Every structure is written in C-alpha cells, then in structure tokens.
Automatic annotation (TrEMBL):
It catalyses: Hydrolysis of terminal non-reducing beta-D-galactose residues in beta-D-galactosides. This is beta-galactosidase. Residues 66-391 form the Glycoside hydrolase 35 catalytic domain. InterPro entries: B-gal_1-like (IPR026283), BetaGal1-like_ABD1 (IPR048912), BetaGal_gal-bd (IPR048913), Gly_Hdrlase_35_cat (IPR031330), Glyco_hydro_35_CS (IPR019801), Glycoside_Hdrlase_35 (IPR001944). The chain crosses the membrane at residues 12-32. The lineage of its organism: Eukaryota, Viridiplantae, Streptophyta, Embryophyta, Tracheophyta.
Length: 695
C-alpha cells in the first residue's frame, strides 16, 4: 500500500509535533546519558579473534566434568544482566554476588539495545558490555555469555530489534530464513569480534558462549542452529565451549540441541524437580564424557505480570533444591542472582493459548532473587542460599556487605503542565504519515511508546459503533467536533485492549462537520517467548465504524525517552523546571485534574550531597502512565492494575539540589496531584497480593 509523508498545517496534529520534539527518532531508544566505562568496542572489532594466548589458560570438558587450568571446576553461577542495572552499580551488585559465593556470572546480550536502528550501534552507558565483562574479570568472576540472537529474558521481543518487524517481505525470526540470517550475520560480525579478546583462552573471563536460547521450546530448524555455530566458530575460534540451554525433556532437547561434541547441551528445569533423571537425559545429547551436569537456569524466583499476584518462592525450599544439585557434583547458574529493573520501555510480555491472552511484564524485575531489585541482601533467600553454597565453594567467601541506605524524600506536589490535546494549538505544522488504512508502529518507524491514529467520519445523531479487531496493545479512543469554536474538547469514548477486545459505542454527537477520531495506541512491551513473538504494535487490522471500513488515516509518532540518550532540549522537561511552589501546587490541584492524557511535573530538593540515596516513588492513587526523573525513564506505572505500586529510583539518577519528576498520566491522575518518595518497594496495589510459590 502506498503511503506518503506530508507536512501540513492542521490543528488535528499540532500537539504531536510538540511531542516529537521531546523525543528522539522513533528508532532510537533514549535514556539519561550515563558515562561510558570503556572505549567503543568498534575500535577492537577489526582485530583477529585468534589472539596470542597470554598464559596457558584453558577451560574444557572431560570425564563429564568442567576443568579450569587442569583442575576440576564446579560452576556456581548466577544471571546478572548489565542492561538492567545502572553502570554505577555494576560493581556493587557483583560484589554482593561474590559474597553469596558465586564464581561465575551469566548474562544475555540484547541485540535491540545495541542496534536500536539499522546500522546505529550503541556500546555506551547501560550498553557498555565490554566494561561490564572487564569488571567481572577484575572481581574474579568467570563469565557465561548468551549473545542470542534471541534471548527471551522477559525483554522486549526477546532481544530482537523491533525494526526487523518492518522489513518486507516479512522475515521469519529464529529460522534459517536467508533474510533473517543476513541481519544476524551483520550483528554478530560486530559483537563477537568485540568480545573475542575477553575469552578465557585470551586472558579474559568468558568460558562459554551460548547458541540461541531454549530453542527446543520454539522450533526444530537444525540448519539455523548449525549456521549460528559456524558463525560463532568463525569469530571466536575452535577452543571456546559453545553451549545450548533447553528444558529438561526429551522433546525440547531433541529440537534444541546439536548432538555430538561440537556444542555442549545444558538443561534447565523447574526448581525442586529431581535433577538425577534430567542429568541422565542430558548425557544422551552430549558426546561420551562430555556431559557435566549443568542447570543453566536454576530459578530462584519467578516473573510477575501486571494484574497478577507477586510471585515469590520459599527460601528454604529453593536452597534445598540447589543443594540437591551441588551435592551430586552438579553445576548450577542461579536465574536470577539479581534481577534489576526494566527501565524505559524494554519490559517484555508473554501470551497464553493465543496472542490475545497478552500478559505484559512489570517494570520491576526483582524476580524474588537473593539480591533484590535495589541490591538488598538482608533477606532469608540470600542467607539460605549462601549457607548451601558455602559448603561447596572451594574459595573463601567474602563477608556480606550491608544493604545500601535508602531514603524517602516525602511528598512531591505536581502540576499539570500540558494536556495532550491542548498542544494541538501550540505549533504550526508537523510531519505525518498518511495511509489508506492504519499501519503498524514499526512501519511508521516508531519502535516504542505511543502512536496516534487520526481519521474522521460523518456525524450521526443516533451514535455509532467502533470495532477494531486487532490492536496491540492498548488504545484510548477520543472524538471531537472541529466545526465548533476552537474545536470541542476531545471526548473520551473508551479503551480497547488486546486481551479483552470489544466494540465501543459512540455518544450521540451533533456536528455540522465531520467528527475527528483519535486512537492513541500504547505499546506495552513485545512478546518475548513462544509462538507469537512476531509481535508488531499499533492498529493491525481494518477499523470498522457501523460495520463499514474506515479509510484515510494519519499516524503521528510520540516517541518518548527510552534508553541510552536524551535530547539536548526537551520542552516538557524544560517546562517542568519552571517555578513550582507547594502553595501554588496545592491551590491549583483541583482545577488541574483531568481524565485526558496529560503531562504532570513536580520537583523535590536534596540539600546535602551526602543525602543522595536510592528511593522509590509511590504512585498510589494514580491511574496508568510513564515516569521520568531528571529525564531518565524509570518505567511504566499502573497501580490500578497492580501489583507494583512503587518504581525504583537508583541514587545515580538523582542529584544534589533540584530533582524534577515528569509523569505522562494517561487516564486518571491522583485528585490531590501528589506522589510520594518512600524508602521501600511495595507490591500490594490493585487486587493482587503476594503469592508464595514452591516451584
């Protein structure tokens, strides 16, 4: 279908031009700038991966055991993802993992974080993987690297860049589709030479590199797996151990492994399952003598979706399950040792039996791990696991550090700064995408955040019925009559969501002109696991009004700050820096309340540099939206759905002096227009309560 970009003056789109100013391009994930801890890895990508070995270092498999420099080695590791922790806290979290007794760190590499736009590479700030790996090495950890290209990880699209979904004809993800492999090859030609100098044989910490991720739970394309192995060997050499990880069943192992001694097959399974028959099954998929028992994902907790009870696992039960593996000379990697946070828009989602059974993940990725989201270790799970690990560790375990101090900065008064639809009258022209029918966010070039769809229809005195068969993921629908003086205020009609799609009845509206229809669609996170990962966003079907297809659409992007960079000038944030006083905020609270999407801003001061501490912002009483602190996207809030009430704000985001908070509230602000800075997390919002699981 043909589409064109046009630049025209129209009040129907003015406020979105304003929003386009506040964001980067639709492709580029943006975050508050964080200091790079190393030079750009491209500086090393042209060096050969066959580096001269500094010492006689080797890590190998023999006699169904791991061997490190000629000595038997038991992996007692944990997953800790560099992209879910601020770089300023990497060392803090790693030292806590060391105090737990771990000797190995396992981490994924999210392709979409590093290549948010085709050919645009990011290896700084949260994406500075080289510095993270070097820090692991400095602190005495070995590393198991999981470069994908698919990672799952409860991360948007399983780590794939969303721009892959805009390629025509559509590519087949996780397959031997030549068009897909072309982009994988291009990515790994950058990534793998970057990490090659950090292989164990080259003096670095990387002992193993994973091929794909739990592929046996998805497909059975052996040509795809073999191609990935060939690519990895070409860039990393023949000595590094390549491995796969699959569920501990015959079916998943048959599909997801490569038999023989080319690739080591590891397993994962439900915590508490008897490991003996699973490790015996694992042997069938490895060469004789090449099957050290390894649970590559030993689950210390579980994930939680919006609207669910908080998933928690019993500490003693989890510790006993770990002992059951280690006591049999098995190796295990705790998933997670520290979960961290899904800052920005990168949290993923799952589905049930079909793609309409959509379950988006929380902003918090605490995972009920022994090292909690804010780094706390003074908890039963950390203590119980440490007792077990201490029995099997061959090295002395450091003392346990105290929890980092957290504080609450108290009540923060907000003021409404801009109603989205008020900005219609603020600017003169914007650039829009036009199409006969709605097109996806990815096709417009909008990867994250929101997209506005605008059309119009003839007025009917008896109202109309709107039906959108397929919207991903949540749409707020408004109508307005443009013929009235300055245009009537948009009327909120209702919400259409992916998981309970229903028709909307429009109110009776008298209008001498056509009625404007606005559909504001939110991308709540792409599916990261299962058969429905090809998860495009936006309106993905025709739109029906009274049974007839509605044509002539205009799409306007509303990209907001996500990860890695911010604009030099952000008008919304600049407005938030204007003079705000508690007195005026209180006085105007009632008149500032609106059910329309709007930006709200407030500030709080930290008078002493020594008082800059971790904190949490409580959104109790608010509806649904996105929060920014000092231009840093701390994530989505949705206390009406729960269970997460508070968002974590690490101290490095804050500063001595004034700190600004900006919310994009989508539907129902707190009537008092206040939020609270508190000193602890809370997961009791909505109708959800904690659910202690024994996996």
């Amino acid at each position: 279908m043909a589409r064109k970009r046009s630049s025209r003056s129209t009040t129907a789109f003015i406020f979105f031009a304003f929003l386009s100013i506040i964001a980067f391009c639709a492709f580029v994930p943006v975050f508050a700038p964080l200091p790079s801890l190393s030079s750009h890895p491209n500086q090393s990508r042209h060096h050969s991966s066959r580096h001269k070995k500094a010492t006689a270092r080797n890590f190998e498999i023999s006699n169904d055991m791991f061997w490190k420099d000629g000595q038997p080695f038991q992996i007692i590791g944990g997953d800790l993802h560099y992209f879910r922790v601020l770089p300023q806290y990497w060392e803090d979290r790693l030292l806590r993992a060391k105090a737990l007794g771990l000797n190995t760190i396992q981490t994924y590499v999210p392709w979409n974080l590093h290549e948010p736009k085709p050919g645009k590479l990011v290896f700084e700030g949260l994406a500075d993987i080289v510095s993270f790996l070097k820090l692991c090495h400095k602190l005495g950890f070995l590393v198991m690297l999981r470069p994908g290209p698919y990672i799952c990880a409860e991360w948007d699209l399983g780590g794939f860049p969303a721009w892959l979904l805009a390629i025509k004809p559509a590519i087949r993800l996780r397959s031997s589709d030549p068009n897909f492999l072309h982009f994988v090859e291009r990515w790994w030609e950058i990534l793998l030479p970057t990490v090659a100098p950090l292989l164990y044989e080259n003096g670095g910490p990387i002992i193993m590199v994973q091929i794909e991720n739990e592929y046996g739970s998805y497909g059975n394309d052996k040509a795809y797996l073999h191609h990935l192995v060939t690519l990895a060997r070409g860039h990393l050499g023949d000595d590094i151990i390549l491995y796969t990880t699959d569920g501990g069943s015959r079916d998943t192992l048959e599909k997801g492994t490569i038999r023989g001694d080319v690739v080591f097959s590891a397993v994962d399974f439900t915590t508490g399952d008897d490991p003996r028959p699973i490790f015996e099954l694992q042997k069938e998929f490895n060469a004789p003598g090449k099957s050290p028992p390894l649970s590559a994902e030993f689950y210390t907790g579980w994930l939680t979706h919006w609207g669910e009870k908080l998933a928690e696992t019993d500490a003693k039960f989890t510790a006993a399950a770990l002992k059951n593996i280690l006591a049999r000379n098995g190796s295990a990697v705790l998933y997670m040792v520290h979960g961290g946070t899904n800052f920005g828009f990168y949290s993923g989602a799952n589905t049930g039996g079909d793609e309409t059974d959509y379950k988006p993940d929380l902003t918090s990725y605490d995972y009920d791990a022994p090292i909690r989201e804010s780094g706390d270790v003074n908890n039963a799970k950390f203590k119980e696991l440490r007792k077990v690990i201490k029995q099997y560790s061959t090295a002395s375990i450091p003392s346990v550090p105290s929890d980092n101090e957290k504080t609450g900065y108290g009540l923060i008064h907000l003021q409404r700064k801009e109603l989205l639809f008020d900005i219609l009258n603020r600017l003169d022209s914007i650039e829009v995408v036009e199409s006969e029918n709605p097109i996806s966010m990815e096709s417009v070039g909008q990867m994250f955040g929101f997209l506005l769809y605008v059309s119009e229809y003839s007025s009917k005195e008896d109202g109309s019925i709107l039906f959108v068969p397929k919207v991903h993921d949540r749409a707020q629908v408004f109508i307005s009559c443009s013929s009235e003086d300055n245009g009537r205020r948009p009327i909120f009609v209702g919400t259409i969501d992916r998981w309970s799609n229903q028709k909307l009845g429009f109110p009776k509206t008298k209008c001498v002109s056509n009625i404007n229809l606005y559909v504001l669609v939110e991308n709540m996170g792409r599916v990261n696991y299962g058969p429905y990962i090809f998860d495009r966003k936006g309106i993905l079907s025709s739109v029906y009004l009274d049974g007839r297809i509605l044509h002539q659409w205009k799409m306007v992007s509303i990209p907001l700050n996500n990860l890695n960079k911010v604009l030099r000038a952000n008008p919304i944030i600049q407005v938030a820096y204007s003079e705000l006083t508690k007195t005026s905020a209180r006085r105007k609270a009632k008149e500032n309340v609106s059910e329309e999407p709007a930006f709200y801003a407030g500030h709080f001061s930290i008078d002493n540099v020594n008082h800059v501490k971790d904190t949490f912002i409580s959104f109790r009483g608010w509806g649904k939206g996105i929060a920014f602190v000092n231009e840093f996207n701390i994530g989505r809030y949705w206390p009406m759905k729960g269970p997460q009430c508070n968002l974590y704000v690490p101290a490095p985001i804050l500063q001595h002096g004034e700190n600004v908070v900006v919310l994009l509230e989508l539907e129902s602000p707190n009537p008092e227009l206040v939020i609270h800075s508190v000193d602890q997390p809370e997961f009791t919002c909505g109708s959800s309560i904690a659910n202690v699981r024994q996996l």
